Amino acid sequence: MPTTTPLGPGGEFDLIRELLARWGSRARGIGDDAAVIAVPAGERLVVSTDSSVEAVHFRRGWLTPREIGYRATAAALSDLAAMAATPLGILVALALPTAWRAEVGEIADGIGDAVDLCGVPIVGGDLTAATDLAITVTVMGTAIAPLARSGARPGDRIWVTGTLGGPGRAVAALSDNAAPDAESRARFARPVPRLREARWLAARGATAAIDISDGLIADAGHLASASAVRLVIELDRLPHVAATDVIAAAGSGEEYELLVTLPPSAAVHDFEQAFRVPFTEIGRVTAADTPGVEATYRGERVAPPRGYDHFS
What we know:
- The chain has 312 residues and is of the alpha+beta class.
- Helices cover 31% and strands 24% of the residues.
- It has helices at residues 11-23, 65-82, 104-118, 166-175, 182-189, 195-203, 216-227, 246-251, 271-275, and strands spanning 44-53, 86-96, 122-129, 134-143, 157-161, 208-211, 230-234, 258-262, 279-286, 292-297, 300-302.
- Helix 1 (11-23) packs across helix 3, helix 2 (65-82) runs parallel beside helix 3 and helix 2 (65-82) packs parallel to helix 6.
- The radius of gyration is 20 Å and the shape is globular.
- The mean pLDDT is 91.
C-alpha cells in the first residue's frame, strides 16, 4: 500500500497535507475513506478511543502544543498497554479552533513523538473546525489473549509500575498559577505507555490489569468490580514522588502507570532490571461478597481517597 493516497484541493486537505509533511513515513495509507489493517493470524483485535479536550484535560498555558499532542496520543496508547496488546496503528481526529491553527504543526510533532516512542504508524483520522481544541486518538492493537480487568483471583498480589503522585501535584500547582516541580511536570506532560512492560507481565502470568488514569484507588475499584473481588491496598507501600504523600499519590490521576494482579508464584523479580521502571507490590486480592477496595495505612483501615470522575 502506498504511504498516502493523493488528496484533492481545498483548505481542509491543505491542512492534512501539512500534517502529513510533519509526519512523513510515520503516516501510512492516508487518503482513503477508511484504513485497512492486517491482523496477525490467531490474534484478536484490541481497539480503544481516548479524547483530550481543552479546559477539561489541559489548559493552554499548562503545556506546550507539542506536549499536548504527545500526551493525547500516549494516553490512548496506554489503553492498549492495559490490555497487553501490541499496537498496529492509530487514527487521529483533530478538532481545531482558529486560535490554534498556527500551532497545528507543533501538535502534529507531539503526536509524532508518541508514535516514534511506541513504534506505531498513523493510519487515518478526521479533521474539523471547532471552538475548543480536542484530540481524539483511536488505537488499534492485537493480542493472542488480551489482559482484561476481570481476571483477578483471591490470593493474587497487587503490583503497580512507576512512581505515583507527580501528575496530581503538577495539576494542583498549575491550577494555583504556580510552577510545578520539574519531576511532577514531566510526569504530567510526558507519560510513557507501558506497552512492553505489560506484554512482559502477561507472559509471566498477570491475571488482570488497568491503567491509572483516574487515580489508583478509583481505577482499582473498576478492576475489583470487574473481577468480583476485594483489593486490599497498603498505602504505606505505595511508590510516590518525594514531594507528595501517599494519600495524594493514591488519588492522583493522569498517571498512565499500570495496576496489575499476579499470582504469588509469578517470577517478576527482574522487571526493574529489564525496564528500569519501579515495580512495587502494594497489596493483595481477597474474596468478597461485595467487590471493592479496602485501603490500609500502617496496618489500620483508612478511608480510600477519591479519584477523578468526569461526571461527579
